[in-house]
From TrEMBL:
Gene3D superfamilies: Ribonuclease H-like superfamily/Ribonuclease H. The lineage of its organism: Bacteria, Pseudomonadati, Bacteroidota, Flavobacteriia, Flavobacteriales. One of its GO terms (biological process) is DNA integration. PANTHER family: INTEGRASE PROTEIN (PTHR46889:SF5), TRANSPOSASE INSF FOR INSERTION SEQUENCE IS3B-RELATED (PTHR46889). It comes from Confluentibacter flavum. Residues 64-124 form the Integrase catalytic domain. GO terms for molecular function: nucleic acid binding. This is Integrase catalytic domain-containing protein.
Amino acid sequence: MRKLVKSLDDEFTKANLKVGRDTLFNVLRKHQMLTLRKKYSSRTTNSLHRFYKYKNIIKDIEVTRPNQVWASDITYIRTVKGFCYLALITDMYSRKIVGYDLSDSLELNGCVRALNKALYHAKNTKGLI
């Protein structure tokens, strides 16, 4: 869009018009000429791998109490120095984060530390999935 503003700037000056970026955006939007830029996101999951895929053992379970089912996830956080990786353990009943670890690599250690924190703070893990 900057290129469009710069290329039209000479034409606006010749016509003795003062049009800034926001005004140009508003005019384009009013006449439905503004296109939205597609946002690209990182592809982080590859489900078409050759490794064994485990069955979903909690699919038919009704979660009725805390510490019955935990779920884990890793989320990527973009920083100025690259990526950080946040490993989370969540209790499916209370939706409370029971364990976490922030690390600068995707190695197994971060997930294990998050699990150990969750196990340390859990009161009863009998029957935990």
